[in-house]
# Entry
Amino acid sequence: MKVNTISLNSVRLNTIALNHIGEIRSGGGGSKPSPIPQWIREHVVFYYDVKKQGATNETLKESAYLQDLSGKGRRMKLNNFLFDMMSGVDGYNNEAFNKSAGSSFEWELIDSRTIKGKASQVFTDFGYYHIKDVTNNVMHINWHIDGIQEGNKVYLTQYTYNNFKIELHNGDNHVALDVSENTDRPNYFYVSVISDQPYSTDITITQIPEYPGALVTDGVDDYGLVENLSSGVKMLFMTVNPIGDFNIGKMYYSQRYNPIDITPFYIFTGGTNIAYAGNRDGLTYINGVLNKSIKYNELFGVKHTITTVNDNVKPETSKAPSFFWEEGNTKNYCSRLAFYNSIAFDSIPTEADGFTEQELIDYVITNIIGQ
# Structure
C-alpha cells in the first residue's frame, strides 16, 4: 500500500484535502483512491495535538482547553494546571524569567522565557536569577544563547561570587554549576551573567524546554476531561513520554464507567503485565506494533504512541474519557506525562471497509499524529 502525506487545512481534520492522499492496490492490478481518509472523517471522535494547536502557557491561561482539531466540538478541559514550569506547555525545570520569585533583571524581557542585554564585568548590570532546579548544591540551567562575540568570554556565575562560574557559548548550553564549596553561602542559588569585557551588542538568552511541543502534567492534580461526549471510544491513539519512574500505578487515560471494573478500557501502569494494563479483552500497540512483551516501566522516559483497540466498548459500560487521571476515582492516579497528541474513533475497520486495522494504524501514525 502506497500512502502519501495527508494534507491538513488549518486545524480541522474535516477539511482534509482529498487530492493525492494515496492509493490502495486493487486485486486486478489497478488502483483506487484510499478509503481511509473518508473513514477517518466519518468515525473520528476527537483529535488533540498540542503543537498543531499552537498552544502556549499564555494562551492556555486565557482559555484552558485543548481544541478538538477534528471539528467535532469535543474540547478537552484542562483542570488544575499552573501553565508554568512542569505543569504546562513544553515543560521547564526553572521558572519563567518574568515569574521567578526573588529575581531581578536589568536586561530586556522579550517574552517569559527570553531576555536580551549587554554583558559586562559587573553583576548588577545583568541582575540575578533564582534557580529552582538544584540537586545537591548543583544548579542546572538549560539556555540557548546568541550574540557572544568571537574572542570574548561570557560566564554564568553564582551571583556576587566570581569563583563559581562556567563559560557560556553560542548555541545550547546545558550547565551544571556546583556551588557546594562556597562555604560562605552554600545554599545561595542565584546566578548572574558577566563577561570578560563590556559588550556593545546584545546577547539573547532563551530557556530550553524539556519537552517541546508537549503538555506536561505534574502528577499531582493535573487532568483533562473531554467535553460533549457521554461514552467511550473503540480505538484510541495517544502519544506520550512518561516522566521517570513516578508513573508506577498511574492512569494515563480512562473511560470505564465503574472504577472497579476492568472493561471497557483504560490505560494504567499497574501490575506486572505488558503495557498497558486495562485492556484485557482488546489489543494494544506500541508505535504501531502489536505489543506482546514490552512492560510499561520499559517505556518510562521514552516518547511513544499507544494505540488501544477494543470492540467491546458500549455506551452503558463506559463514560466520557478523562486524561492523566480517572475522573471520579478517589485514589491518586494522576500521572506525570509529556502529552503530545491523541485521536480517537468510534469504530474499528473491518474487511468491508477495504482496509485492515493495521493499515489504519500505520496511516494515522504516519500521516496524522506523526506529522
Residues 1-29 have pLDDT under 50 and may be disordered. The CA atoms of residues 149 and 370 lie 39 Å apart. The chain is about 10% helix and 35% strand. The radius of gyration is 24 Å.
